[in-house]
Amino acid sequence: MIFHQLYEPESSTYTYVFGCPDTRQAVLLDPVIEMVDRDLAALQELDLSLAYTLDTHIHADHITSACRLRSLTGSKIAYPEMDALPCADVGVSEVAPLEVGSLRFDALFTPGHTETHHSYMVELPGISRAFTGDALLIDGCGRTDFQGGDAATLYRSIHDKLFTLPGDTLVYPAHDYQHRHVSSVAQERERNPRLGAGRTMEEFIEIMANLNLPYPKRLDVAVPANRLCGDCPDEDVLLAREPEGPSFQG
Residue limits of the Metallo-beta-lactamase domain (predicted)? Predict the structure, then answer.
């Protein structure tokens, strides 16, 4: 498998490039609309043809480039099936993985940050990788105070779905605000200050209730746009960048 991690600095978003070495088809996970040129250049450099974009959830801090890339490349749009987005070409669920050449993305329903959030497992011989979106971050987690978020639900998602994975499973989040690139399930179980080291659900709920985070600056633009797979705002709105920083994840 061809694999690259790309970083968008304004929203601290990681976009992941996956390529099948046999078919030269690619999948972009959580792409950002302002980075279309960068992503297309990366695909060209790797001699890959974009087959699908895939998102973990309807983001509130950036706008997906799914529709833009579909119009430019003919790629298809994959989203969690339960989002029921008319703009999506393919719905992904725990019983309906996304397969592209030798690539396989097994969905894990991990609500709590949003009510339809999904993580994705990608297996290689001897290597398991979990792409945890905004649910589980490195030494943190996504906030739970909008888009159907719920702290108790997120706690169960992480403890029942993600923390039960083998400890050496690599954890790749959708964001990091300290330029860290990867963690592991064992590391997050042991030292995540919100969810690890034996934190109870009651302790986690109290932590999340007392974050006092500011209202996300782009939520009113990003969420409606992402419900249309990114095909919504005017260009002037799309390019009006306001950094979210750690306030988005708490």
Answer: 12-175
Tokens of 4: 């690259």
Long-range CB pairs of 202-208 (<8 Å, 24+ gap) are 204/151, 204/154, 204/155, 205/151, 205/152, 205/155, 208/143, 208/144, 208/145, 208/151, 208/154, 208/250
Q: What contacts 72, CB < 8 A, 6 or more positions away?
A: 36, 40
Q: Which amino acid is at 137?
A: L
- Average pLDDT on 209-219 reads 85
State the virtual CA torsion across 121, 160, 171, 35 in degrees, nearest 10.
70
pLDDT computed for residue 237 by the predictor:
45
What dihedral do alpha carbons 250, 63, 77, 12 form, nearest 10°? -50
Residues in the chain: 250
**Phi, psi values for residue 133, rounded to 5°:** 55, -135
The label of the residue with tokens 């095909």 reads 231
pTM of structure? 0.91
Q: Which CATH architecture has domain 2-231?
A: 4-Layer Sandwich (3.60)
Question: What would the mean pLDDT of 193-214 be, rounded to a whole number?
Answer: 94
The predicted structure's pLDDT at residue 128: 94
CA dihedral 20, 25, 28, 34 (to 10 degrees): 140
Residue-wise DSSP of 199-240: --HHHHHHHHHT--PPPPTTHHHHHHHHTTTT--S-HHHHT-
The answer on pLDDT for 125 being more than 90 is no
